[in-house]
Design goal:
Layout lengths: L4 E5 L12 E5 L3 H5 L6 E5 L31
Antiparallel strand pairs: 1-2, 2-3
Length: 76
């Protein structure tokens, strides 16, 4: 099943107060358009930009190894 829709920009070309860039209407046949019929408004649409792939954060550096207190050779 398919639904033919058409996207229309806002009249002033600006985003609406809700951040929408336009509205979506259901398409009607050519004959219906010529009679002045308009399709029902289905909803609004918003332009979504593709996110750029971010570079991964550098791996954390390993903490320095603590110095051994066993330098005198005594195991305790």
């Amino acid at each position: 099943m398919y639904l033919d829709v058409a996207l229309f920009d806002n009249k002033d070309g600006q985003k609406s107060q809700y951040g929408d860039d336009g509205f979506v209407v259901q398409k009607v046949s050519k004959e219906a358009r010529q009679r002045g019929e308009k399709g029902p408004i289905v909803g609004n649409w918003r332009f979504v930009e593709e996110k750029q792939a971010s570079t991964p954060a550098p791996a954390p550096k390993a903490a320095p190894k603590p110095a051994d207190d066993d330098e005198d050779g005594v195991p305790f």
